[in-house]
């Protein structure tokens, strides 16, 4: 039976992602490692500061895992939350797991700890890239209801691989932020169809920003993560030049597009108007028809 | 500080840094060596084009000038808030910029960030905060959000935020707060040439910010939590 990733808690996601009974939490709730800043502001704390971290087995292989809890402050990154992520990546340098898997669900920096969160995001990026440099794959899983935004959206694109569900979202600024800054004409945050075709898993998959697209199902995320174990994409001048060429090409080909529908149509996606109704499983076939045009 | 004034204070006439829109780029002679200078001005909103352009300068430096120092000049209002940028995947463009800086550091280029005017939110993460060390001028402004906006979003009374910000560097705007938390290594004042010279000598690939933050009392838990995770 399917277990909705979006409707699961962080701990449920981890429990069902890993091989049964292999998850060992680090700095779990019993340790009471909480944010000292929230109490000062009169805001309730969480005993894990909104991120579950630990180790376990996936397909019999040792991995490290982090899962953000979107229900706590939108998964926002503060001092302790960020430090747990940094610590996990630094731990990976020592124990050399088969992968570090991050179940990302976050609006970015936690405003209540804005400065600490901003610095923490860059520290996470540096630590993550250290892990990649040692050949340990970093795999980002994105499917929570809150999406992956802000600093976490940057972190996601520093990983070796990104797996998304079709209902997951990945972007920099949330549509509400863009609307409040530049008006509803710029980005109507209440237009759910627009939001999803701009930041959702299908568009990110068709453009290559998401490597594997799955349904909203923990088992499918698990299968995708298993398939990516051992696949490291080291950072090098050659890989960065290739990335640069890809991004420059995307800008020149689609920079004047005003909607994902325009991008899909121009790139040759068959029946772009039907993409929204398609199952996640149909997307690879669609993409394969025009492998060079989009990504 | 105006970017031209800054460059004159650092390099006198010995630089070929040009402005192209909001992009600053070029090279400068310093203590007998050539540095790459790249960054933004005019409180630039970092969109896909500007992220890509800065990354290009960094990549060219790595490709053509082994070991050359890189000075990142930060003046940004953060990421550009446009539907089009999100459509194109601005987070990937900005992450690319950050990864290029990281590649440069890894390839033994000293990378120094300097916030000379404004550093806001995401635009700061993938430039100055990815450097070996980031410095700031005392008059520079660094923040995620101003207190009134923060009060609206968090629904915490603005007066309360203002009061708490006097003793807690963790959320309020202010360059001193970032120094206290270790995000900014130090403020540069007086002889900027001496500051740059010292920074280049001090450049290190190790990330000491959490330790600095703890020692300065601005970010007490980050380093110890990280250590507990590593040693668990």
Automatic annotation (TrEMBL), chain A:
<dbReference type="Pfam" id="PF01039">
    <property type="entry name" value="Carboxyl_trans"/>
</dbReference>
<feature type="domain" description="CoA carboxyltransferase N-terminal">
    <location>
        <begin position="1"/>
        <end position="237"/>
    </location>
</feature>
<protein>
    <submittedName>
        <fullName>Acetyl-CoA carboxylase beta subunit</fullName>
    </submittedName>
</protein>
<dbReference type="InterPro" id="IPR000438">
    <property type="entry name" value="Acetyl_CoA_COase_Trfase_b_su"/>
</dbReference>
<dbReference type="GO" id="GO:0005975">
    <property type="term" value="P:carbohydrate metabolic process"/>
</dbReference>
<dbReference type="InterPro" id="IPR017556">
    <property type="entry name" value="Malonate_beta"/>
</dbReference>
<dbReference type="InterPro" id="IPR029045">
    <property type="entry name" value="ClpP/crotonase-like_dom_sf"/>
</dbReference>
<dbReference type="GO" id="GO:0004658">
    <property type="term" value="F:propionyl-CoA carboxylase activity"/>
</dbReference>
<dbReference type="GO" id="GO:0006633">
    <property type="term" value="P:fatty acid biosynthetic process"/>
</dbReference>
<dbReference type="InterPro" id="IPR011762">
    <property type="entry name" value="COA_CT_N"/>
</dbReference>
<dbReference type="GO" id="GO:0009317">
    <property type="term" value="C:acetyl-CoA carboxylase complex"/>
</dbReference>
<dbReference type="InterPro" id="IPR051047">
    <property type="entry name" value="AccD/PCCB"/>
</dbReference>
<dbReference type="InterPro" id="IPR034733">
    <property type="entry name" value="AcCoA_carboxyl_beta"/>
</dbReference>
<dbReference type="GO" id="GO:0003989">
    <property type="term" value="F:acetyl-CoA carboxylase activity"/>
</dbReference>
<dbReference type="GO" id="GO:0016831">
    <property type="term" value="F:carboxy-lyase activity"/>
</dbReference>
Automatic annotation (TrEMBL), chain B:
<protein>
    <submittedName>
        <fullName>Malonate decarboxylase gamma subunit</fullName>
    </submittedName>
</protein>
<dbReference type="InterPro" id="IPR029045">
    <property type="entry name" value="ClpP/crotonase-like_dom_sf"/>
</dbReference>
<dbReference type="GO" id="GO:0005975">
    <property type="term" value="P:carbohydrate metabolic process"/>
</dbReference>
<dbReference type="Pfam" id="PF06833">
    <property type="entry name" value="MdcE"/>
</dbReference>
<dbReference type="InterPro" id="IPR009648">
    <property type="entry name" value="Malonate_gamma"/>
</dbReference>
């Amino acid at each position: 039976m399917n277990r909705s990733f979006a409707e699961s808690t962080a701990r449920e996601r981890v429990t069902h992602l890993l091989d049964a009974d292999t998850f060992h939490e680090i700095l779990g709730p019993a340790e009471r490692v909480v944010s000292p800043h929230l109490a000062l502001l009169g805001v309730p704390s969480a005993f894990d500061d909104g991120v579950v971290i630990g180790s376990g087995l996936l397909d019999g292989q040792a991995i490290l895992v982090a899962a953000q809890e979107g229900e706590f402050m939108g998964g926002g990154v503060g001092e302790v939350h960020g430090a747990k992520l940094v610590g996990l990546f630094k731990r990976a340098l020592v124990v050399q797991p088969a992968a570090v898997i991050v179940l990302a669900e976050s609006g970015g920096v936690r405003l209540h700890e804005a400065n600490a969160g901003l610095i923490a995001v860059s520290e996470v990026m540096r630590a993550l890239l250290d892990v990649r440099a040692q050949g340990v794959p970093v795999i980002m899983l994105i499917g929570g209801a809150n999406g992956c935004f802000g600093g976490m959206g940057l972190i996601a694109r520093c990983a070796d691989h990104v797996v998304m569900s079709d209902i997951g979202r990945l972007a920099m600024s949330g549509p509400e932020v863009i609307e409040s800054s530049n008006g509803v004409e710029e980005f109507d945050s209440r237009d759910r169809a627009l939001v999803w075709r701009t930041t959702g898993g299908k568009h990110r998959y068709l453009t290559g920003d998401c490597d594997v697209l799955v349904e909203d199902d923990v088992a499918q995320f698990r299968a995708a993560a298993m398939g990516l174990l051992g696949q490291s994409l080291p950072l090098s001048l050659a890989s960065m030049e290739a990335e640069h060429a890809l991004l420059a090409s995307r800008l020149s080909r689609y920079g004047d597009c005003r909607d994902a529908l325009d991008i899909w149509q121009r790139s040759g996606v068959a029946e772009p108007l039907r993409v929204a109704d398609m199952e996640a499983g149909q997307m690879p076939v669609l993409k394969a028809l025009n492998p060079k045009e989009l990504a | 500080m105006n970017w031209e004034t800054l460059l004159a204070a650092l390099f006198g006439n010995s630089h070929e840094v040009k402005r192209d829109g909001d992009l600053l780029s070029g090279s400068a002679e310093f203590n007998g060596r050539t540095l790459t200078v790249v960054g933004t001005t005019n409180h630039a909103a970092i969109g896909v084009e500007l992220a890509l352009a800065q990354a290009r300068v960094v990549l060219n430096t790595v490709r053509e000038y082994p070991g050359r120092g890189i000075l990142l000049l930060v003046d940004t209002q953060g990421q550009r808030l446009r539907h089009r940028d999100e459509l194109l995947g601005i987070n990937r463009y900005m992450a690319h910029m950050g990864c290029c800086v990281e590649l440069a550091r890894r390839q033994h280029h000293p990378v120094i960030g300097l916030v000379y005017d404004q550093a806001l939110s995401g635009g700061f993460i993938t430039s100055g905060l990815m450097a070996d060390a980031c410095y700031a001028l005392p008059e520079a402004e660094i923040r995620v959000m101003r207190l009134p906006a923060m009060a609206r979003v968090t629904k915490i009374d603005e007066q309360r935020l203002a009061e708490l910000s006097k003793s807690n560097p963790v959320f309020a705007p202010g360059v001193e707060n970032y120094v206290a938390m270790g995000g900014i290594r130090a403020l540069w004042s007086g002889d900027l040439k001496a500051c740059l010279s010292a920074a280049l000598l001090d450049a290190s690939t190790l990330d000491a910010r959490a330790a600095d933050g703890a020692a300065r009392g601005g970010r007490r838990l980050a380093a110890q939590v990280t250590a507990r995770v590593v040693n668990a």
